[in-house]
Amino acid sequence: MLDTNHRVTIASGAAQAPDALPPSRLELRIAEKKAPYDDASAVLEASRCLYCADAPCTKACPSDIDVPTFIHKIATRNTVGAARTILSENLLGASCARVCPTEVLCAGACVYNHWGRPAIEIGRLQRYATEQALARQPDLLTKTRQPKTGKRIACVGAGPASLAAAGHLALEGHTVHIFEQQPRAGGLNIAGIAPYKLHAEDALDEVRFVLSLGDIHLRTGTQVVTGTAGAGEISTATLERDYDAVFLGLGLGTDTHLDIEGEQGEGVVGATTLILRIKLDAALSLAGIARAVVVGGGNTAIDVARELAQLGVKEVVIAYRRTAAVMRGYRHEMAAARLEGVRLLEERPPLAVVRDTQGKVSGLRVNVAGTSREETLPADLIVVAIGQNRLTQLAAAFAGVELERDGRVRIDEPTCRTGNAKVYAGGDCVNGGKEVVNAVQHGKLAARAITASFAQRHDKDRAHG
Predict the structure, then answer these.
(1) Which pLDDT score, from 0 to 100, does residue 370 have?
(2) Which of 227, 233, 208 lies closest to 218 in space, CA to CA?
């Protein structure tokens, strides 16, 4: 039975490389949905690209990848050149190729859509270029690394935003220290992405690639605190004092609760907690769970519902409090979920978790479509996917850093700088929980702005020297 009280153990605060993963975890039973291209298929698909002058695909890419150029290089069998084009703008281009909703971003903007023809498979081509090139030439980017500058930057969190920032900063010759409170680096990519898009070991491979780019030191099992630091901790005051710049890639926190009767106890679990365990916990078993109800209407709700269906749960229902027309989850993802047997029940706000006399979950009582009528949806497991709490109070411990009314960190968008000239921020703590590619872009912009600030300080010092 699923133990919903499970907690991940935090590793000791020693500098370390990413940990190996347990071999018998549930995510390995879930096959990826988009197979990688072979050489012939990649060249054939790339040859369809029209190399549009206005490049709507590039305009739709949050990380500004020159899409037509990298596709043209694949078509001419210059795979290394294609990968260099991608990675110069997006160091996590390999994972973004697999997890990005290309259907609503780059491929969604492809001109073929207007002609009733299939859009270019941009994500699969991006995956092909990055994986093939890095397998052949793993030092693809390190040849361009700049001499050491002596500057030190701290990155808080080891998710996509911090990894992107760290990689770009290291290539500029700076030293980077990453502090991550979890046992493994990778953030959302390792712990929160649906396995049919990206397995955890592939996310760890990408972490290793980023760490190879320069003088980057990863310290897992280390929590950043606002007061006096103890074992396995480092204080915000120390970061601000000992580093030339600080990047906050805080991500999001724990799952939000429904706050309804019967919610506390075994059989009710947060969506991100469950996804993490499917991906990383070899002890997790879904034995005895035949019916599951997922509460929510976003992409996380759809992801976890699809995972449960793919893992053999016979009946999976998404209960959403509004109509499908206003669901935040992508329509193409919901369409795929339906093909896998997931049912969507609209206008079903939750009222209470129903338990039997032994306290075991037996269903979810909901209101029906704006009426006074109620019904109970049978369930052995209830998954809550209505959002996550924010971790941004830590950011406010730095003098001058301000939060928006909804708790997000306030930044200058072009530079990702906060109100503190030494502190930058990006990713979910800034945008509230967008795509991996948005976090990567923040990390890149912050790294470029940090490097530019060092040059400006140097020029000022010379002018006054």
Answers:
(1) 80
(2) 208
Q: Which of 445, 436, 407, 391 is nearest to 247 (CA)?
A: 445
DSSP of 142-204, one letter per residue?
GGGPPPP---EEEEES-SHHHHHHHHHHHHTT-EEEEE-SSSSS-THHHHTS-TTT--HHHHH
- At the second CATH level, the architecture of 144-251+391-464 is 3-Layer(bba) Sandwich (3.50)
**Burial (CB count <10 Å: 0-12, 13-18, 19+), residue 431:** middle
User: CA 229 to CA 245: how far, in whole Å?
Assistant: 20
Average pLDDT over residues 50-71: 97
Q: Which residues contact 41 (CB under 8 A, 6 or more apart)?
A: none
Q: Which percentage of the chain shows pLDDT scores above 90?
A: 90
Place of tokens 């968008």: 413
pLDDT(464) > 70: no
Residue 388 pairs in a beta bridge with 255
Length of the chain as a residue count: 465
Contact status, residue 292 vs residue 383, Cβ threshold 8 Å: yes
Reported pTM: 0.93
**Cα 459 to the chain's mean position, in Å?**
37
Domain 32-136 has CATH 3.30.310.170: no
Give kind and range of the element (H or E) at residue 241.
helix 236-242
The span from the first CA to the last CA of the chain, in angstroms, equals 69
